[in-house]
Structure formats: structure tokens, C-alpha cells
Records
---
Amino acid sequence: MPQNSIKTIQKFKLDKKKFATLTAYDYTSGKIVDSIGIPLILVGDSASMVIYGYDTTIPITMDEMLFVVSSVVKGTKNALVVADMPFMSYQSSIEKALDNAGILIKSGGAGAVKLEGGIEIVDTIAAIVNIGIPVVGHIGLTPQSFHQMSGYSIQGKTKEAAKHIVSDAIAVEKAGAFALVLEGIPSELAKKITKSISIPTIGIGAGPHCDGQIQVFHDILGLFDTFVPKHAKQYAQVAETMRSAISTYKKEVESGQFPLKEHYTSIDKSVIKKI
Ligand code: KIV
């Protein structure tokens, strides 16, 4: 399998081929996702919840992101690894955004970064692209604006709001992003945006008309089973499988069924006697 680049991702749109992308947060999950031939792995700031246990994506820091990004990169041979820029690592100044994007590429080993926002951050996107760092945009429902949006709700339902999101998409493409995540918008709006721009759209909760889809690793595996978001389909119940295996291990240790002879090493009794 070849090493994927931004060209690989853009070719999917040119060839009219749908593509699946997924998040990952550590060496093992990165290695598994990569082995399936998923062309783009996002180290999402959803790590804030599924790895670090925060309630939203707001608290996660650059250091916490850097740790998960470099772990995923170590497990990945072919996928393009995109690192999410955490909240307040790019909003306060372009200089700060450039420094932090640079850290995720240089120390984290990622091949691109992702930023949330539309027209208001196009100068930042352009500046990052200008120094040679590929950017994925992210518009619609932007979880880092949790408080401004009064929670996680579908965006772009009115004529004005939908128009604004279309303008965001066009502006982000113009700023130089090579792909665009559309999160939590009506499918008809995602279809219109996908037709209106030449970079691939990657949808989550945005319907079937996007060029690609992105899902959270823990959601599709049933690993984070506190709640199942509407946009997610569980392809397995891994949390349940883990609970069952750990419970059997516990019972076997308590009853003396584990460990068995094949799990340990013995030496001759005469050696022990001489100690
Ligand atoms: O953080 C994340 O996992 C994301 C995707 C859900 C798009 O931004």
C-alpha cells in the first residue's frame, strides 16, 4: 500500500470514489486502522473525552494532543495522519497558530492539521498552508464552540444559517484547505456544499452525499457505550466483549483456574531445595 498524501485524498473526489476515514488515539488503534487501508486517520480532539475523560473538547491541551498524535503516528505506515488543533492553540493569533501547527507536524509527526471555523479563521488557514502545512477545515457543528452554540445541535437549518455555512465552505477552500469536514448539518446542505467546492468533503452527521465519511473509533466499535450519538453506527460491542473477558479473568484468578501450567515456568525441585 502506498503512503497516502493530500493528493490521495483529493483523488477520491476527482475519481468520484467514496472513502472512509476514522479517528485513532494511540499506537495500537492507529496500527489497526492503518492495516485496513483507511487512507486518512484523524487524531481528533475528541481524545479530550474518549482518552482523557473531560466532558467536552474544550479542556484538552497541546501537550495532551501531542502525546496522542505521536503515538498514532508510530503505529501508522500508510495513512495520512491529521492532527486536530486544540481549542485556543490557534484562535488568539496567527503566530500562535503557526507555532502550534508546526509542533504537531515537527514533534508529533502528523502530515496535516485540522482547524474548526469558517470565514473568521481563513487568514489563519492561509498562513498555515503558506508555510507548507496542509490544512483540513471543519465547519457546521464545531464542538470547540460548545458554549457559543448552547450545546451540540444541528447547524444550518434556516435559510440564513445555511447560506452562512455555504460561504464558510467556499472561504475555507479559497484559503487553501485540502479537505473539509462537515459536521452536524442537514444532508441537503452537505450535498450542495459538496457540489459547490472542488476539495473533498468529509461528513459526520451530514448525510450520504459527502465525498467521504469520518467517525470516532470508540463510537463505531461500541467502545464508548455511555451514549451512542445519532450520527454513529455501532459495528461491534467491544466494551461488552472487554467486560466479559475481564470478568472471566477475575473469576479464574479468584477460583485458581488461572494461571495454568502453560502460563509459567518451572525448575527442578532439587534446585529449589538448595536455596
Ligand atoms: O475530534 C474529532 O474526533 C473530530 C471528528 C469527529 C470530525 O473532529
Note: The longest strand covers residues 135-140.
---
Amino acid sequence: MRISVIGCGYLGAVHAAAMADLGHDVVAIDVDAAKIGLLAAGTTPFFEPGLPDILSSSLASGRLVFTTDISQAAGCAVHFIAVGTPQSVGSNAADMRFVDAAVTALIPHLSDGDLVVGKSTVPVGTAARLREMIAASGSHAELAWNPEFLREGHAVNDTLAPDRLVYGLAAGARREESLAALNAVYATAISAGTPVVVTDLATSELVKIAANAFLATKISFINAMSEITDAVGANVTELADAIGYDARIGRRFLNAGVGFGGGCLPKDIRAFVARAEELGLGQSVAFLTEVDAINQRQRTRVIDMVRGVAASVDVDVATARIAVLGLAFKPLSDDVRDSPALEVATRLSALGADVIAFDPEANGPAHVRFPDLVTAETAEHALTGADVVVVATEWAEFIELDPVWVAGLVRHRAVVDARNALDAAAWRAAGFTFVGMGRP
Ligand code: UGA
């Protein structure tokens, strides 16, 4: 099948390469010439495990081309809209300019019978509005919504082998044709048993935002519990293990720590609240404002923990040398958008601390946002001479650090485990004052 993918960010670049890997002919389009230049040369503009392999094999096969020329979408049967919907400047609502611009630019190149498929996370009602926009242009192309659930760091596998497919289809004469087109796009996953949920446009938009809202709520729930366990000397990890055995609850996304960040969860819950308020339904999702507040509080809590642990080794945080391990919003990613780790590092710097940070992949992206942030080339370099160590992103190489080796590098033995990822007993045995999130 001939497919166009409009938008080559985390979502679009992976989707384009994955579709080509599945055997489709793909034209991937973006307005950013520098990004297109890199991708066309087989270089990924961001870190995503597995993407370089399918990118280079798809380019070599000739099934994947990158261009800034939207007219190259002409002749494709299915057009995926995969542009970003970031938080608007000065409001909590999603910024829809990129989606609107992509569809507006695509319309002149559509043929009757084409299917435009939205993948971006959008406020409910967007798909119906875009469908009307296409019809009003005189085009006889149809529009469907097919939300994406990929996680950064696992994006290739999540795209090639998703745990479910959701199709939002409009009622009408073209419904069966749209269903058949999407089934053809995803034939490989469907034949492997991936469940398909076929629904209406609005439900499909809500599925995505509800899924992210639920995940964010789960994380803030356990972080709220960790505030309580901290106060009473209980253990949030054991609490999560124990409640997680209940299949109705489940253990995943119950890791307490510095909280969620990234380009999705934080802005999606805010956009959901903003959209619900527009609909006069603010009360229905008011709890998400609390989910956001709990999440933000964890960042301040980590700063307070650093202050406390520094004091325990007779160092003032304002003069301490602090090794911040991790800058990405989570491991296996170089994404620092709304990263709790990066915020902790920069807030400690603002307090006067001598911060030296290290992330295996995100030093560069962190520098783009904070050019003054001091970063190290290795964890060893960051740790050398530190008064306090903060593990802010749970990369495997930090979890695997030998505390005895670290003890030989640092000036004072004080560690804040902001991800509850370390073996507290081993660090304490190596002489560290150890502070975790809601666990002794
Ligand atoms: C999230 C969703 O998980 C995807 O399903 C969705 O497709 C994507 O957003 C999106 O909307 O595009 P992602 O942003 O890649 O994916 O990251 P997650 O793996 O969900 O992690 C989000 C944040 O939660 C990270 O900062 C992570 O460290 C934090 N987290 C996760 C916790 O603090 N505790 C946990 O137990 C799990």
C-alpha cells in the first residue's frame, strides 16, 4: 500500500519507518528540512532503540522516502497525520496549529477515495472538525482516527506489534472502505492476533487521552502514597508490590519517584482538563488537576531530600557539589521535554549548588534547553568529588553502579534515589546516607 506520513517527530518517524518495514511504500513528510535531511541520510534525529536499523533497511529497500514537499503525498491511498500537539504557550490547551496546518497543506493533494488518518493526540471533537474541513474543500477523501499508544524507548516494537489497534470511523457510506484500508495497513499485526477496537471518531480520540490520564493518575496515586509512607516510616515499594498482585490494580506504573514527564502525559492531562472545561465538564476531570499537582510536588520533594541529605553530611546545598545522574524524562530516551530530572538539576543549580549532571543520551538535548548546565562525559566524572549523588532517571547503568566503587569517588557519601531504583541496603552498607522516595 502507498502511504504518506505527515510529521517526522518521535511518532511520525517511527511510524513511517515501521510501515515501510512492514512492506508498505511510504513517503514521510516534514516541514523541517534539517530533520528530513538527517532521516533521508539514515540518521535518527533522536535516540530510539531499534529505529536506526529499520530506518536504514527501509531506505535501502527504496520503500521509504523523506521529503519536505507535501505534493509527494499525492498518489498515496492512506495519509497519516502524525504531527505534534504541544501545550499552548500561556494556556493548558493543546496547540492545534500543526495539525490544522498539516491537513490544510495536504488537502490539495488528496484524491477521491483517499483516507486521511489522524494519529496525533487531540482534543475530542477535532476529528469531526477536520473531516468537515476536508469535505468543505470539495475533496471526497474520508477521515478516520487511529490513536497511537507507543512509548518512547519501545516505540519500534510498540508500532510493529501494538497491544491493540483503535479505529475511529465516521458513520456513512465510506465506513467499510475505511475499515478495509486500515486493516490492510495493519495486516501483519492483525494476523498475529492484535485486537482491533472499531468505534466512532469521538470515542477514538477519547481512548487515547483517557489512557494517558489513567496512567498519569496511577503514577500520582503511588506518589501520594509515598508521601504518606514517608511520614509514617512505611515502605511504598512493598505497598505497590502488595496491591499490584491484585489483578484489578496491577503492578505496572506504580513506581513512586520524582514523577512523570515527557512530551505526552503532562501536557495531555492539562489539555484534557482544558477541553472538558470548554465543554462545561470541568468537574468530571478536575481530579486531573490534583494528579498534576501531586506530580509537580515530587520535584520539590526531591530538592528537599537533597537539602536534608546534604545537611546530614554537614554540607549546605547552596555550596554542595551535586552529581545528578539522569536528565532524560525516562531511561532509553534522550527526551528532556518536561523532564523531572532536568528540572531537579536546574533547580539545584539555581539554589547555588555546583551541579554536574550526566545522562547516557540526553546531555545534548539538555544543553539545548539549558546551555549553562554543566554535564559530564561519564558517570564517573560526575561522581568524582560529589557531596551528594542524585539518581534522577533510572538508566540501567545507574542501577548497576557498585556503591563501594562510588564511595571511592565521592567526597561525601550521601545519595538520593529519586526513582526508587537502587538497592538501599547495598548503598547503606557502603557507608552512604541513603534517602529514597517513601521507603526507609
Ligand atoms: C506515554 C504512554 O505510556 C504511551 O502509551 C503513549 O503513547 C505516549 O505517552 C504518548 O502519548 O505518545 P511515554 O511518554 O513514552 O508514553 O512515557 P511513559 O513510559 O508512559 O512514561 C511517562 C513518565 O512516567 C516517565 O517520566 C516515567 O519515568 C514516569 N513513570 C512511569 C513513573 O514515574 N512511574 C511509573 O511507574 C511509570
Note: The first strand starts at residue 2 and ends at 6.
